[in-house]
Amino acid sequence: MPLRLPDRLPAIDFLKDENIFVLGNERANRQDIRPLRIVILNLMPLKITTETDLIRLLSNTPLQLDVHFMKVKAHTSKNTPIEHLQAFYRDFELMRAEKFDGMIITGAPVEHLDYTEVNYWDEISDIFEWARTHVTSTLYICWAAQAGLYFHYGVPKYPLREKMFGIFPQRPLLPRLPIFRGFDDVFYMPHSRHTEIRREDILRVSELSLIAESEVSGVSMVMARGGREIYITGHSEYAPLTLDTEYRRDLAKGLPIHMPVHYYEDDDPSRPPLVTWRAHGNLLFTNWLNYYVYQETPYNIDDIH
User: Fold this and answer.
1) Span 249-264, mean pLDDT?
2) When you count CB atoms within 10 A of the terminal residue's CB, does the N or C end of the chain come out lower?
3) Can you give the CATH number for the domain in which 143 is found?
4) DSSP label at 266?
5) How many degrees, rounded to 5, is the angle at CA 216 between CA 211 and CA 220?
6) pTM of the model
7) In contact, 167 and 189? CB cutoff 8 Å
8) Catalytic status, residue 305
9) How far apart are CA 25 and CA 102, in angstroms?
10) Other beta carbons less than 10 A from residue 255's beta carbon
11) Does 266 map to a domain?
12) 3-class DSSP state for residue 75?
């Protein structure tokens, strides 16, 4: 089944060019089915790019998804047209009374700040708390994973000497979990971050399960509340050229940046990236939707608590 998206969302045209079938609201309303309600809290500056990356992965499920976009009121995006935000996004306050089968909270370019210095920390803390009673399962990605683990469980973050930047092999530590159904013994995940969380802090919290990690990039995935919360420190949703764009942007700005590791063919930036994470990225999101959203959420969405 296709995704149900707001009419005229730019991602629709991008994904149709990739032969990915999506459905506008008008046509979806004629189908007699209860779609899964998915809300995306998009904290990234280039919101259209992030929307497209996430929708690309969500589109692989046979389930019909009704996708909504949330934003925080305390922050105004400078890199996305206001017309786009007005057309497709709603403030959290306007969605507070609603319930959703699944939620995705993206990363944000605020790693250099202490959590309480982030201008929307109070609002996003409210959202974190709200999600526990209004969402069946929530995916926290990159900065959101660090922030969620800090808010809910007091897990600190630590600055890195240099940016964790590239494609790194990960190992499932609990390979029989449904989230890893169909995974190989090693899978690859892009990382792009200046801070980290540490395994010893995760292992101190009895409510948390460290479920995947890397010898190089460290903690990769953490699960809590039986899969109602899944924390991912990397970016399985990244498109092939995302790290290339970040690398060349930072070079142009004269920022200290090393070439993303295990990314370009023969480690040569003049050659195209070698994509090694796409298959497991698709599988990760499909497994989440199937085993932690669809099979766990009540048919009557109002019964979520």
Assistant:
1) 94
2) C
3) 3.40.50.880
4) G
5) 25
6) 0.89
7) yes
8) no
9) 19
10) 9
11) no
12) coil
pLDDT tens-digit series, residues 156-202 = 999 999 999 999 999 999 999 999 999 999 999 999 999 999 999 99
Domain count, the chain: 1
Annotated catalytic residue: which of 134, 142, 152, 191?
A: 142
Residue 125 falls within a domain, yes or no?
yes
User: What is the residue type of 257?
Assistant: I
Kind of pairing between the strands at 158-172 and 187-196 = antiparallel
Q: 32 lies in a domain?
A: yes
Q: What's the rounded Cα separation, in Å, for the pair 11 and 296?
A: 28
Owning domain of residue 52: 3-238+278-303
Q: Is residue 218 predicted with pLDDT exceeding 80?
A: yes
The answer to the question of residue 200 being in a domain is yes
Closest by Cα among 135, 17, 160 to 68: 135
Q: Closest Cα to residue 121, out of 133, 138, 108?
A: 108
* Mean predicted lDDT score pLDDT of the chain: 91
By the 10 Å C-beta count (0-12 exposed, 13-18 middle, 19+ buried), 27 is classed as: exposed
Token output for 187: 């899978």
296 forms beta bridges with none
